[in-house]
């Protein structure tokens, strides 16, 4: 059996309104996502998809329970573990405007201590695979929306993370470009044996996921 990339063990999370009344987002939730598996997360707007992904990515703290990354209990905001094991893709690309395309893709490797020459070679090879090699030294401002999001995917997968967290990664794209970006995420994940935990409103992508989960009544349930 494949290695567990992400595990929730009795995870609960509550939102507190202005009166400090607790509203459950997740309650005693258990989840297992394996290496190479693509799991889509759906649910109504405001139900807690982003919060669930942030907990999985160690960017938000659960109120109760444990989160494990590759079998290792993961404390909230464990920066070292997050940099090593997790890649992030968002609806907005979050590329750094002061860096060119190549530098943006290199960044995760440089942060993790990879020598610059090695990081540059890997980034160039990845951009070539994505047919973005001609953009390597361009400002991100010169790219189309689809190109920017493909660069964001490259940045997320270059260190071959165990887990990719993707929050509406195609939400701002036209249907054809969205399909290209989604296919790129899936292909990169399978090639690197990365797990993907992805929130999407686009039903056309759900059939490509290995599993679809829905947040309903503060629980994660299997859907379609």
TrEMBL record:
Superkingdom, natural source: Bacteria
Keywords: ATP-binding, Nucleotide-binding, Transport
InterPro entries listed in its UniProt record: AAA+_ATPase (IPR003593), ABC_transporter-like_ATP-bd (IPR003439), ABC_transporter-like_CS (IPR017871), MacB-like_ATP-bd (IPR017911), P-loop_NTPase (IPR027417)
GO molecular-function terms, A-Z: ATP binding; ATP hydrolysis activity
Keyword Lipid metabolism: no
Residue span, ABC transporter domain: 6-224
Pfam families in the record: ABC_tran (PF00005)
Family: Belongs to the ABC transporter superfamily.
Main function: Part of an ABC transporter complex. Transmembrane domains (TMD) form a pore in the inner membrane and the ATP-binding domain (NBD) is responsible for energy generation.
Identification of the protein by name: ATP-binding cassette domain-containing protein
Species this protein is from: Neorickettsia findlayensis
Phylogenetic placement of the source organism: Bacteria, Pseudomonadati, Pseudomonadota, Alphaproteobacteria, Rickettsiales
